[in-house]
Amino acid sequence: MEFSFAIVSALLLFFITNYAWRLARNVSAAKATGLPFLIYPIDPSNIIWLLTTVPLRPWLRSILPTRIWNRLTLTIYGWDFYEKRHPFDEYAAPQGNPKSFLVASCGPLELWTADPIVATDVLRRTDDFKMPPLVGVLLGQFGHNVLTTNGQRWAKQRKVVASVINERISRTIFDAAICQTTGMLDELQVSSTETEVERRYIETTKMFDMIKRITIHVLSEAGMGAKTPWNGKDDKKSESGFKMTYIEACKIVMESVTGPIVIPTGILLNWPSWIPGHTFMKQLGIAKREFPMHTEILLDQERQRMSGKDAASEKSNIMSHLLQASDEQTSELTSLSKDELNGNLFLFTAAGFETTANTLSYAIVLLARYPRWQEWLFEEVDALLTTDASETPEYSAVFPQASRLMSVMLETLRLYTPVVHVLRTNDTIQEIRTSKGIIALPANSSVIINHIALHLDPEVWPNINRGSDPSWVNSNDEGIPDETIFRPSRWINPVGSPRRIYQPPKGCFLPWGQGPRICPGQKMGQVEFVAVMLKLLQQHRIDAVPLTGENSRDVEQRLDELLRNSIPKMTLIMDGIYNVGTTGGVRMRLTRRK
Ligand code: HEM
Predict the structure, then answer these.
(1) Is 0.95 exceeded by the ipTM?
(2) Does 519 count as an annotated binding residue?
(3) Any idea which positions bind heme (predicted)?
(4) Cα dist from 300 to 335, 425, 439, 470, 587, whole Å
(5) How far apart are CA 343 and CA 414, in angstroms?
(6) Each residue of 342-394: pLDDT tens digit?
(7) pLDDT tens digit string along 550-577?
(8) Which of 42, 77, 421 is nearest to 259 (CA)?
(9) Residue 515: CB within 6 Å of ligand 1?
């Protein structure tokens, strides 16, 4: 008994001393940088801290005194979305640098920054500031890929990946997105009630789930050549030997990349029925087992096509280009291995799925909240397309002209960027350029580039392109800082400018990151966004349906709350808009406008 007590006491003493030593070391390192810093006697990167504090956030906020909560919140994952610029103004500015501060805790030293000069310097130096290992654990499940690697291995893959995304892929994305959105509208039309037909509107709670479905179908077609019609008949039957279709496996796997995907397949398949979540875990197990098998079949089909008589046919998907690009290289140093090929095929869908779906969903909610911007968009949509639904828009004629639709995407990404921050780590001590001079960051620190704070910088964003505003802008927003308002016209430069769309200063607008690792799917996401919105607005306006007893002001407040209560998971997501079967969803109305 005494012996066990001694062991427990010794272990406890060891942990406390170790934590105290790490804290003291970080505080001294933070002081040496000359940057503002905050001290925390805990380790915010500890997995137990992460898993317990995130769900407890609302409760902790409600019980803790504001002064304590305002400090503690900075240790809870996702604070950047809720706190916006507050910590920079409240803690960093009084210490002499309003753009960056350090968190000196018992974990790694963290540099939180909304300084465009730091962002640009760090994101440019891919060898000095690396992608952290956790990304590999979550997104490297089906093979190494461009997001999970660093150094030479990343450079090789990046070169291949960049070479396969071209204008032909953009056209495929555009056509697929138009086709899928048409399918969605047709389905809604067919399922509408008699009253709805009479009143020329359709109501649904499934709109955001349908947006997700569009995204996964488009990515599967553009990525893997797995063309899936909207009505999903092909979705339903799985090939012999499989329990799920490719799309079903894809959906489940993609929705699990935030965590459960790390659980080994064998454990998932044998998940005990008495533990909550049994059905989902089993499904995930099947999806995880079958997803690479489907990929293998699609790859074989593509290889056969490439060596067969229809090899020269105009088939444009990322898989065919990746195979081609790999085959053209003879050296291992330049071509992709089998593991890398599979890893990147998975990544293209994973990286493009929620990011694009969420951007579309936020834009729809914002347009329903601020309907006058729809009127502004209709002017452009009607100039680009007739209201004849059977007309098929042409990518090269429509996309370059769709500057207002693009400005809605950019403004949505400025306020509700799916990737709220990017994280890099440094193995060795590194000098960094900041707006207040050069600092030396100790080895094994984390640099977190805070997109939310950058996108609200009052030195950058207020009152840009006021001349492009429709006449009604500003009538309701007096006293609210312009940078916090949804005002898409800030992106439209005056007629006659060399660029139609406003180009923010370097390091200030980072929804797609920046530097050598900038998102290679940027154009794909833009093309898909424009195509889906164009088709949705071609004949319809979008509103949120009032709940019983709600007036229009109540609806606005409900939508504000929906936006405010977003949750930063792997991407930023509105709570309760997807999976309507379990959440109830948000009822939206599409009204024929002509
Ligand atoms: C609105 C849509 C999108 C947003 C907001 C977005 C955002 C981002 C961001 C912020 C990064 C940089 C991450 C970092 O530096 O740590 C990134 C990287 C990446 N994205 Fe996207 N993305 C979008 C769409 C797509 C699509 C459609 C694809 C599919 C082709 C894609 C594929 C990738 C890949 C492969 C990387 C890793 C690049 C590298 O590390 O070299 N993304 N994305």
Answers:
(1) yes
(2) yes
(3) 519
(4) 18, 38, 52, 54, 43
(5) 30
(6) 888 888 888 888 999 999 999 999 999 999 999 999 999 999 987 677 778 99
(7) 999 999 999 999 999 999 988 999 998 9
(8) 77
(9) no
